[in-house]
Amino acid sequence: MIEILNSTELPRAREAGALVADILQTMKGRSAVGTNLLDIDSWAEAMIVEAGAKSCYVDYAPSFGRGPFGHYICTSVNDAVLHGLPYDYTLADGDLLSLDLAVSKDGIVADSAISFIVGDSKPAESVAMINATERALSAGIAAAGPGARIGDISHAIGSVLSEAGYPINTEFGGHGVGSTMHQDPHVSNTGRPGRGYKLRPGLLLALEPWVMADTDELVTDADGWTLRSATGCLTAHSEHTIAITDDGAEILTLPKQTHL
């Protein structure tokens, strides 16, 4: 299903996006050495409930997971990259943490993810990976607009990731959003320009470049949810929800203090 929002629905999408951005930045600020992943989940729950919104993950039970997910936010550490199930783990200095959050507010979903390094250590490999996913995300957004094709976005993202030297997994990527979290069209993190669905004003897309340092193969954790790199290498993940407008793309999950 592909949903196209009308002019009365877009303001609600902006509200959902602002909430997701606010929660993620708050969680980043609280994620220090000694912080437990379960505390991050509890803090996210409190902010979501206070805002009168709903996490899209609590009841999430797709065919590839051991559902329902049962938590409010995805917390992926180091070699974990997607669908990180919060558990009793205390963050250490130098951990690479990815937080992924999808929230529904007033019937519209926004989805975003950030990766950052915990503590004072700044390993060069981690910094480079995070920067690569953020550059790829910027490139994908720049390629989006009315009349562009999904393949244009995929090609822009994939070009940045490939040039940075990272293998690209195509099992999981970006997607449409609207009244539900995962919709068509699928947005692969690599592809051919000029191919696929033509973008229209009112379409919401969650673009999410993610990489693993030396492999494109994922393995599923014993928890049935957390996806890790098959080699145990570091990973990173960046995501924004955008709205296609008459003259380009509007980022709905951009933190107030950040310019992308």
What does it look like?
The protein has about 260 residues and is of the alpha+beta class. It has one domain: Creatine Amidinohydrolase. It is built from 4 helices and 14 strands. The strands form 4 sheets. The protein has a 5-stranded antiparallel beta sheet with strand order 7-6-8-13-14. α1 (about 10-30) packs antiparallel against α2 (about 35-50) and α3 packs antiparallel against α4 (about 150-165). The longest helix is centred in the first third of the chain and has 21 residues, at about 10-30. The radius of gyration is 17 Å and the shape is globular. It comes from Kribbella kalugense.
Biggest pleated-sheet summary: 5 strands, antiparallel
Query: How many separate helices?
Result: 4
First-to-last CA distance: 29 Å
CATH homologous superfamily?
Creatinase/methionine aminopeptidase superfamily
**Category by helix and strand content:** alpha+beta
Spatial arrangement of strands, main beta sheet: 7-6-8-13-14
What's the CATH architecture?
Alpha-Beta Complex
- The tally of beta strands, per DSSP, is 14
Shape: globular
Total domain count: 1
- Low-confidence stretches are none
Oligomer: single chain
What's the gyration radius in Å? 17 Å
Helix content: 25-40%
**Estimated share of beta-strand residues:** 15-25%
On the 0 to 100 scale, the average pLDDT is 96
Name of the CATH first level: Alpha Beta
Which fold name is given in CATH as the topology?
Answer: Creatine Amidinohydrolase
How would you spell out the order of helices and strands?
HHEEEEEHHEEEEEEEEE
InterPro entries: Creatinase/aminopeptidase-like, Pept_M24, Pept_M24_MAP, Pept_M24A_MAP1
Cofactor: Co(2+); Zn(2+); Mn(2+); Fe(2+)
Binding site for substrate: 83, 182
Family: Belongs to the peptidase M24A family. Methionine aminopeptidase type 1 subfamily.
